[in-house]
Amino acid sequence: MRRKLLTVSIAAYNMEAYLHQALDSLIDERVIDELEVFVVDDGSTDRTLEIAQEYAAKYPDSIFAVHKENGGYGTTVNYSIAHATGKYFKLLDGDDWFDTEELVKLVTVLRRLDDDVVYTSYRIAYANGTFRYANGIGDLEEMSKEGKVVQLEDVKAFPGIHGAFYKAETLRKAGLGLPAHRLYTDMFYNDIPLAFCERARFFDFCVENWRHEREGQSSSRQSLVSHADELKLNVIDLLHFYESAKEEELQHMTVVKRRIQSEYVFGIWMILLAPVSKEALRRFRAYERELGPISRDIYSLDEISIKSKRAFFIKLCRKTNYLTYWLLKLIPGGWPYKV
Hints:
By secondary structure, this protein is of the alpha/beta class. It has 2 domains: about 5-210, Spore Coat Polysaccharide Biosynthesis Protein SpsA, Chain A, CATH 3.90.550; about 220-330. Helices cover about 40% and strands about 20% of the residues. It has 13 helices and 10 strands. Strands 1, 2, 3, 4, 5, 6, 7, 8, 9 and 10 form a 10-stranded mixed beta sheet that branches. Helix 9 packs antiparallel against helix 10.
């Protein structure tokens, strides 16, 4: 069997209601032979594994059903990276799906590329049936339509897991390993490999549809608030990575710094999404006291403070001994939640 072009890792925990759509979107005679799809069942209690096995039986050279004990999202990614034979690597949540025609376009160009990461656009699919186009690259859209090489330093906002196709070799070079039993570990996948990427390219293909506002989803406001302490552990790990990478003088440190500053701010935003209260303020200040000393570079927020409203608000709170926090009482519903 020839080497695959693209490995797709599907994290699947109790996804029987959505997995058919995810897998059907990958099945097209023009590309299926070049795909390696790991459906990693993370200890589901529904028919997820059975559905994956049905597809694996039909496409034994392209789709592989994997069952493992529950270890969290990060462990499904770790499995797929360790076993990937594809030149490129893509994550897909079990409740999301590809636009098949756009995927075919991308695979067609991937055949001739050798870039460390290829970025694409994606769509956010809302519960009411509407979609929103998400570019993520900002003002590079015009040049990206031609698939030109882009400088990572010029990228204004990265598409993240929904639009990132890394070369598998680059992920291994980065020694990427995601923590078990934690949410929001995609931030490691989004940020760490950037220090090992020499060349990036962007195509304006809307390949993935990201399902948003599903009940119980980790990106819901309720989940973000309740798991803020869990995300803080991820940010702490990233702060230590940044300090180590700075000593080793890895590539694109300005980009890595900007990305991890964004994660630092995201952790505070999760706290601010809670109702305005003395307890939320205490958690906000405790977060800053604990994480600030780990990396003063990241704490400074110098790379994002001008253009990020969240970072601007945090710095304003610091200047006023956090009294500015109480201004959130003036906003109906508190700090706005928007994805």
